[in-house]
Design brief:
The protein is an alpha/beta fold. The protein contains 13 helices and 12 strands. Helix 3 (57-62) links the parallel strand 3 and strand 4 (68-71). It starts with a strand and ends in a 10-residue tail after the last helix. The structure holds glyoxylic acid (2 copies). One glyoxylic acid binds next to loops.
């Protein structure tokens, strides 16, 4: 019987589909180290991974029976896809089903930062609220403000729709500009990265993490942002130079940041946690019950397809 190893317990809806195979699920409520993972998945035909599992060349070469790595995430920067390709191991992800949830969370961060929700909550809990005041915790209005979307993929586009409902103007930057027709349909305007940063009141990042996008936003680009500007990241932490961002926030050279992802997750620098002009979330982009269930069904379908010699619906390589 074909063996499937799952590195962390997933929603049951997905696991249920896999029980007719020899299914092994890490029952502990913790991540596996690399040697543990190799040991755990030894001889597996299929491996289901989280974005926190580093599936590098060594892991891929040690798991000699492996036919498929199904990542329980849309991003797959945790997997050495070159090594997988060389060994003929199929890699799949979970695109589409988490678009709306991630766009919602992006909007939540935009509202939380511009309207100082978390600061306000802390203020109330500390017992500091002693009445409505004309200039208490003032934020920024969204109407007629410019949102700059870096990376106009599925999630970026879903954020555009939401921002439009709030009356924002949207500019975008993408490796490949969208067609004129699509720009018109979304009512967005293409800008160079530099112009986007200069123009935008809110900048939101929606690119995958690759060699090209690592530290895409560092000091020299943060410098271009308005002092009233807000930076939102729900993509991957390393797209932004975290140390540079900390410095800009500390010196109030931008108004605020909203971060769902960090450069060395789950480590979050103390210097960042100390600042009150940043909202920090524990990577919750796709964290709705419905979405995580859909993602579990998707990884299961991808694995089943490969184990049956078929092309999986969400193949990356
Ligand atoms: C989450 O960050 C994902 O890539 O699915
Ligand atoms: C605020 O609460 C107002 O009524 O203006």
């Amino acid at each position: 019987m074909q063996k499937i190893s799952v590195t962390y317990k997933l929603p049951e809806e997905g696991l249920r589909l896999l029980r007719r195979y020899d299914l092994k699920v890490n029952a502990e409520d913790r991540f596996l180290s690399k040697p543990e993972l190799i040991d755990f998945a030894y001889n597996a035909d299929a491996l289901i991974t989280l974005l926190s599992d580093q599936i590098d060349r060594e892991v891929i070469e040690r798991l000699e029976n492996l036919k498929v790595i199904a990542n329980y995430a849309v991003g797959f920067n945790n997997i050495d896809i070159v090594a997988a390709k060389e060994r003929g191991v199929v890699v799949t992800n979970t695109p589409g089903v988490l678009t709306e949830a991630t766009a919602d969370l992006t909007m939540a961060l935009i509202l939380a930062t511009t309207r100082r929700l978390v600061e306000g909550d802390r203020f109330v809990r500390r017992g500091l609220f002693d009445g409505w005041k004309p200039e208490l915790l003032l934020g920024v209005s969204l109407k007629d403000r410019v949102l700059g979307i870096i990376g106009l993929g599925r999630i970026g586009k879903a954020v555009v729709q939401r921002a439009k409902a709030f009356g924002m103007k949207v500019v975008y930057h993408n490796r490949m500009p969208a067609s004129k027709k699509e720009e018109k349909a979304l009512s967005v305007e293409y800008k160079s990265l530099e112009d986007l940063l200069k123009l935008s009141d809110v900048v939101s990042v929606h690119v995958p993490l690759t060699k090209e996008t690592r530290h895409l936003i560092g000091s020299s680009r943060l410098k271009l942002m308005k002092p009233t500007g807000v930076l939102i990241n729900t993509s991957r932490g390393a797209v932004i130079d975290e140390q540079a961002l900390i410095q800009f926030l500390r010196e109030r050279r931008i108004f605020a940041a909203g971060l769902d992802v960090f450069e060395n997750e789950p480590e979050i620098p103390y210097a960042l946690r100390e600042l009150d002009n940043v909202v920090l979330l524990p990577h919750l982009g796709s964290a709705t019950r419905e979405t995580r269930m859909e993602m579990a069904l998707m990884v299961a379908r991808n694995v089943i397809a490969v184990l049956n010699g078929k092309r999986p619906p969400n193949r990356v390589v």
